[in-house]
Write a structure and sequence with these properties.
By secondary structure, this protein is an alpha/beta fold. Helices cover about 40% and strands about 15% of the residues. The chain is globular and about 45 Å long. The relative contact order is 0.16. Phosphoenolpyruvate (PEP) binds near residues 217 and 237.
């Protein structure tokens, strides 16, 4: 297994105060783990990012921050939007791009995902690009073609450190549903994604992003996913809202 990566996507949960409480609990629980041989990235809502960043420094927490979205333009008349520069200043190192909830409810397209991926990398943010098929596409046997199209458009510009990005494979039907695919099936899909980067995009072996799985991951099932050779990490929504559960997830993978 490569160094496992855990991404916690809080979605529209937690105030600044709730974030403070969470990080205090997280510090206590993480200190009980025997090592720090893993990466932990937390994506709070925008309003909590700066105070989370200050707290991470104050508590020396082994945590990096991601935003859940941003606008690809550097600045301008885009009411309600936020730029990469603002996120970097607030303390983010990563940004989630193309989450299915953004695609479904907020008009995110493969094209905007591509623009955001480039804008993120130009400004020094590491993109976590989400891809995944719907239940209908899966039934119709279109899983791989849908994912390939999403990746092709997100990574059309290959001159920008593709290998530094992360890809999160998140089947839409598994997100927040309690349903999960078989870890071995996810492994095969991750292998296809890696092969796609290697061959079609001609990025070469060194440029294959770490590939995470997301969709109803929790402390009970995470170890089974992480045993698979092509699953480099997980992205968790619901289960990451509790610091205790998040650390249980990490523990179940790193403690044997
Ligand atoms: C997600 O937010 O991308 C996600 C996978 O959520 P959940 O873990 O709740 O399914």
């Amino acid at each position: 297994m490569t160094r496992p990566c855990f991404v916690a996507n809080w979605k529209m949960h937690k105030t600044i105060e709730e974030t403070r409480t969470y990080f205090i609990a997280l510090q206590k629980k993480l200190s009980e783990l025997p090592s720090q041989a893993w990466d932990l990235i937390i994506a709070p809502p925008y309003t909590a990012i700066f105070s989370a960043s200050e707290q991470i420094k104050a508590l020396s927490l082994p945590v990096q921050l991601a935003a859940q979205n941003f606008h690809f333009e550097a600045e301008g008349a885009y009411t309600g939007e936020i730029s990469s520069k603002m996120l970097c200043e607030a303390g983010c190192q990563y940004v989630i791009i193309g989450h299915s909830e953004r695609r479904t409810y907020f008009g995110e397209t493969n094209q905007t995902v591509g623009r955001k991926r480039i804008a993120a990398q130009q400004s020094g943010l590491i993109p976590i690009v989400c891809v995944g098929e719907s239940a209908k596409e899966r039934e119709e046997g279109k899983t791989l073609s849908v994912i390939k199209r999403q990746i092709e458009e997100a990574f059309a510009e290959t001159t920008l450190g593709v290998g530094l990005s992360l890809v999160a494979y998140e089947p839409l039907w598994a997100i927040g549903s309690g349903k999960t695919p078989m870890p071995s099936d996810v492994n095969k899909i991750h292998q296809e994604i890696a092969g796609f980067f290697e061959s079609t995009l001609e990025t070469g072996k060194k440029e294959i992003p770490r590939i995470l799985y997301g969709g109803s991951v929790n402390e009970k099932n995470v170890a089974a996913f992480m045993k698979e050779p092509h699953i480099d990490g997980v992205l968790a929504g619901g289960a990451s809202l509790s610091a205790e559960t998040l650390v249980q997830m990490i523990a179940s993978v790193v403690i044997h």
